[in-house]
Amino acid sequence: MKSHIVKVLHSFYINYDVKCFVVQKPKDYDFIPGQATDVSINLPGWEEELRPFTFTSLKSQKQLEFMIKIYRDHQGVTNMLGKVNAGSELILHDVFGAIQYKKPGVFIAAGAGITPFIAIFRDLYKKNKLSGNKLIYTNKTSDDVIMDAELHKMLKNDYLKVFTRENVIGYVGKRIDRNFLIEYIADFSQHFYVCGPTDFVNSITKYLLELGVSPDALVIEE
Prior knowledge:
By secondary structure, the protein is α/β, with parallel strands linked by helices. It has five helices and eleven strands.
């Protein structure tokens, strides 16, 4: 497994617990929108602590970008990343990931599970090929939404926000379950892309298959 030490060029919070990192891009380092790499921090004791994060930058950009949810409640990698700023170094490893765009369809994301979709949407938007795709994005509250303004700009009316712990006028306040999917999705013969916590992905996948979605049309991180 090849590793690359890269310098952090910029780091800033995009909401209260999600931090954006812009880092150097190693030579000949390539990825498909939706893919990820294992990242560790180039500090004593942290070099071997690898965690997977998705690229949110476009392939054509000269730098790499990650949007990482910072968990401050335990002394783990993301808590440490919360203290990492411009000038620090990260270690990147091989590129991997099964979430890749195939055909227009419905994207269903929970929380930080939006990150692979941000890369895909940015790529399609740039190519003027985003039409026909829809995003259903669930969070606990409106404060948890990542890149809300940009998602709205790209997807317009094909962007549905769901909040599980907050009823905001104009948005859906409920959980995404089987009944929700039946209510908000007219066509189960299209492609579906699902990303988020494991339990979320498992339950949504189960509902979609029950509702007739072809296993081949389901794109998830294995």
